[in-house]
Amino acid sequence: SIERTFSMIKPDATRRNLTGAIIKIMEEAGLTVVASKRVWMSRREAEGFYAVHKERPFFGELVESMTSGPTVVQVLQGENAIARNREIMGATNPADAAEGTIRKEFALSIGENSVHGSDAPETAAQEIAYWFSETEVVG
Ligand code: CMP
């Protein structure tokens, strides 16, 4: 079915001018960008977005890297958008990512892995609502 998912192009990627290259892969996979903005996250925003990870040993490093430069936050829409986006992103750790995936091609490390995508319908809805009002999503 047609779904919406939340996607971020992380600072390691915007810094290397990879925004267009990454969106091209998403569009070629049948996903449509129905909302998009470039944000330089505050510490508070990054901590809130990633609150589920706050007890993890990498939380400090994660917040540090997500506040190190601009991020492009997006809503992607398409057939099975949540799973489709995860397929094209590849594994969280670029060392494990399949050939042809965004992380295999562009990620620098597990912490600087170029993109984030929602993992389930509930998190997609939460993550979209964290960054966008309903009128900003234009399908
Ligand atoms: P993301 O999909 O944005 O969700 C949480 C992020 O935490 C993940 O991608 C990684 O970038 C980061 N992360 C996960 N594990 C580690 C780790 N072991 N060290 C540093 N960062 C990590």
Automatic annotation (TrEMBL):
Its cofactor is Mg(2+). InterPro entries: NDK-like_dom, NDK-like_dom_sf, Nucleoside_diP_kinase, Nucleoside_diP_kinase_AS. It comes from the Bacteria. SUPFAM superfamilies: Nucleoside diphosphate kinase, NDK. The active site is at H116 (pros-phosphohistidine intermediate). GO terms for molecular function: nucleoside diphosphate kinase activity. ATP binds at K10, F58, R86, T92, R103, N113. Keywords: ATP-binding, Cytoplasm, Kinase, Magnesium, Metal-binding, Nucleotide metabolism, Nucleotide-binding, Phosphoprotein, Transferase. CDD domains: NDPk_I (cd04413). It catalyses: a ribonucleoside 5'-diphosphate + ATP = a ribonucleoside 5'-triphosphate + ADP; a 2'-deoxyribonucleoside 5'-diphosphate + ATP = a 2'-deoxyribonucleoside 5'-triphosphate + ADP. Residues 2-139 form the Nucleoside diphosphate kinase-like domain. SMART domains: NDK. Its EC number is 2.7.4.6. It holds the Pfam family NDK. Its main location: cytoplasm. It is found in: Cytoplasm. Belongs to the NDK family. Homotetramer. This is Nucleoside diphosphate kinase.
